[in-house]
Amino acid sequence: MAMNRIQFQPGLSLRELNKLYGTETQCEEALEKMRWPTGFRCPKCQNESHCIVWHGETKTFQCNRCHAQTTLTGGTIFHATKLCLVIWFQAMYLMTQSKNHLYWYRSTRAHDKLHCECDLTLCRDYLHPL
Ligand SMILES: [Zn+2]
Questions:
Q1: CA of 55 to the centre of ligand 1 (A)
Q2: Residue 48 Cα, ligand 1 centroid: separation in angstroms?
Q3: Measured between alpha carbons, how far is 30 from 91 in angstroms, rounded to an integer?
Q4: Which residues neighbour 72 within 8 Å (Cβ) at sequence distance 6 or greater?
C-alpha cells in the first residue's frame, strides 16, 4: 500500500500557525498563493492580465480582457463570510488537529467568548457538509 503523503506531513504548532498566519494580510497572501500559484488567472476567460480595483476595503481583481471582477474569497468556501481569514485559518487548524468532532469543544476553549458565536457559524457552514 502506498504511503499517503498528506497523512504524514510534518505538523504545525500553534505558535508556528500564529507566526505564519497570525494577521489578515498573511492569510490573504497565503490564500492568494494557494488559489493562484502562478499568479492571478481570470475564472471566466483564464486571462492572466489584470488590475486591482478597491471597493472600500475589498481588494478586487479585474480581468483586463473581459473585465470580470473577482475577489480573493469569491467562489471559495470563504465567499461572503463575515469572519476574518485569521479565524478561518485557526478553525481549520483546530479541525485538522482533531481526529473526531472534539473541534467544537476545543474551539470554545481556544477562542474567547466573542468568537463563540462565530465558531457556531463556522461549524454549521464548514463541518455540516461533512
Ligand atoms: Zn477574464
A1: 19
A2: 8
A3: 16
A4: 28, 31, 32, 35, 59, 61
103 CA distance to ligand 1 centroid (A)?
39
What secondary structure letter does DSSP report for 126? I
Q: Which residues contact 83 (CB under 8 A, 6 or more apart)?
A: 118, 121, 122
Coil/strand/helix, residue 59: strand
Q: How many CB atoms lie within 10 A of CB 40?
A: 19
The verdict on pTM exceeding 0.85 is: no
Ligand 1 center to 24 CA (angstroms): 27
Residues recorded for the chain: 130
The pLDDT profile of the chain, 130 residues, written as one tens digit per residue, is 677 666 666 778 889 999 999 999 999 999 999 999 999 999 999 999 999 999 998 899 999 999 999 999 998 988 888 889 999 998 888 877 766 555 555 555 555 544 545 555 555 555 544 4
